[in-house]
Amino acid sequence: MTVPMTDMAELALSSKAWPFQEAEKLLKRLKGGAPEKGYVLFETGYGPSGLPHIGTFNEVARTSMVRRAFEELTGLPTKLICFSDDMDGLRKVPDNVPNKDMLAANLGKPLTAVPDPFGTHDSFGAHNNARLKAFLDTFGFDYDFYSATDCYKSGRFDSTLLKLAGVYDKVINVILPTLGEERRKTYSPFLPVCPKTGVVLQVPVTVLDGAEGLIAFEDSEGERQEVRVTGGTVKCQWKVDWAMRWDALDVDYEMAGKDLIESVKLSSIIRRILGGQPPEGFNYELFLDEKGEKISKSKGNGLSIEEWLRYASPESLAFYIFQSPKKAKRLYFDIIPKAVDDYYTALEKYTGEDSAARYKSAVWHIHGGHVPSDTLPVSFALLLNLVSAAHAEDKAKLWSFVSRYAPGATAAAYPALDRLMDYALKYYEDFVRPNKAYRLPDTETELSAFAALKHRLEALDPGEHDAETIMTEVYSAGKDAGFENLRDWFKACYEVLLGQPQGPRMGGFIALYGIPETLSLIDTVLAGKALD
C-alpha cells in the first residue's frame, strides 16, 4: 500500500529540517509503502566495552528524531532496536572502572562472560547494558533492547549465519583487500568461541560444509575443533556482524559516526551478497572534549550521561545534539548553561510560530510534536550568576530574589524554573564556586565608573528598576568614567562584582539581585575590600 502525501507532510518536507530529509530518503527507499514485515525498523548499535556516554545517547536520540519525522510523513508503524554488541571479546581494560585486575584476567572473553567489576550485575556487559537502558528509560525513548549474546545463542541469527557460511569466500574477499599482510593470515568472518577457555578467538577458519555451516579451527591449545556456526558457537567479525544483523533483523535505517564511513561501505557490500538492501542512514560528525579530542568510552573523557543530567535536563542535551549533526561539537561542562537557555528560548519562540516554522524547530523534533509550554521569567545563565553573587544555598532564597524581579513568580507558576534551580545549585557548587576570583577595581577609570554606577542606581525611582532601564545606567556609568571600549567596563563589572570574567547582561542581574544589595556590593569594593 502506498501512503498518500498529506498537506501537512508536504509542509514538513518543505521545512528542510534534517530529520525530515532523512525520513524522505527512507520513504523513497520503501516506495511509499510499508515493508513486508509490517513495520519500518530503525536500529542503533552500542558497544558495551566501556561505560555508556553521551555519544551513545546521541545516536539513539537522533535516530528517534528521524523515526518521529518518518511517522509524521507516513503514519506507518515503526520500531526502534537498540542493539548491544555484548558478545564482543573484551580487548582492553577501560581506564574508568574499579577492579582492573579482575577484568585483565578475563580479557578476550565475551563481555557477557566477564565478571562485573562493580559487583552489581551478572557480567560487565550486563552492567553497562543496564546503565544504558536506565538512561534511555529516564529520557522516555520508545525502543526494544537486543543483546547480541541473546540473539546468537537463541538462534535468532542462525539462518543468516548459515547464509554467510554459504558465501564465505565472497564475504572474506570483500574484507581481505582492506587488511595488512599479517592480519590477512588470521582473518575470518567467523570468530569461534573457544570451547575450553570461553575466549573469542581470532584464528583462521576453514568452512567444511557451507550448507550445514560446519567449520574447523584450532582452539586456544592448538587442538582442532569442528563446530556449526549456529547457536552461539561463533560470533562475526565487526563489519560482517553489522551486515549479518541488518539481514537477520531486516533493518531499514541506521546512522553512524563519520569514523565508520568505510565500515558502512563494506558492510553494505556484504549485505548485498546476502541478498538484501543495506539500510538507509547518514554519517554524523563526532563529539569532541574540551581539548578537541574524540570522546572515548574507554578513556572516559568528555561528559558522561550522569554528569550532564546532574547539571541540566535531558531536553537541553537533546536540543544541543539536534543542531548541525554533520558538524563536530565540543562536549564539556561549559556548554551546558547556553544549551539550557537556547532550549527554553526555542520553546518560547515555538508558541508564536506557524506550522511550517514549527516543523523546522528543534523542540518539535525533541518532543515529537508534543511540545510543552514551559516558560522562564529569568534565564539559566542569569540564575547561575544570581546563585553565585547571592551565595544562595537553597531554592527558598533563590525564589525570594526571583519573585522580586518577576512579581507573582512561584514554583507552582514556573515549575521548569523550580527544576532549573536544583541544577543551578549543583552547577555552582561544583564548578562556579571553586573558580571564583574577585578582584578590586585596579584603575582610576574603574573606580570612577563604579562610583558613577552607585550614584545612578541611587537616583533611580522604584518604578524604574526594570532590567533595560538599569542597563542604560550601567552603560552611562562606563561612559561617564571615560571608558573607550565599554566591553572593558562590563568585564570589570563581572570580575569585581561576580568574580568571573563574563556573565549575563548586568541590567538583568542587578534587577534580579536588587538595587540595595548591588549598592552594598559597590560600597564594599569602593571601600577597598574585595568581595568574597
UniProtKB/TrEMBL annotation:
EC number(s) given by UniProt: 6.1.1.6
Q: Name one GO molecular function term.
A: lysine-tRNA ligase activity
Keyword Aminoacyl-tRNA synthetase assigned:
yes
Subcellular location, record wording: Cytoplasm
Record bears the keyword DNA-binding? no
Gene3D superfamilies from the UniProt entry = 1.10.10.350, HUPs
Q: GO cellular-component terms in the record?
A: cytoplasm
Q: Where is this motif: 'KMSKS' region?
A: 294-298
Major location category of this protein: cytoplasm
What is the superkingdom listed in this entry's lineage? Bacteria
Query: Which keywords are on file for this protein?
Result: Aminoacyl-tRNA synthetase, ATP-binding, Cytoplasm, Ligase, Nucleotide-binding, Protein biosynthesis
- Residues bound to ATP are 297
- Family, as annotated: Belongs to the class-I aminoacyl-tRNA synthetase family.
Q: Which protein, by its recorded name, is this?
A: Lysine--tRNA ligase
UniProt organism field: Eilatimonas milleporae
Q: Could you tell me the gene encoding this protein?
A: lysS
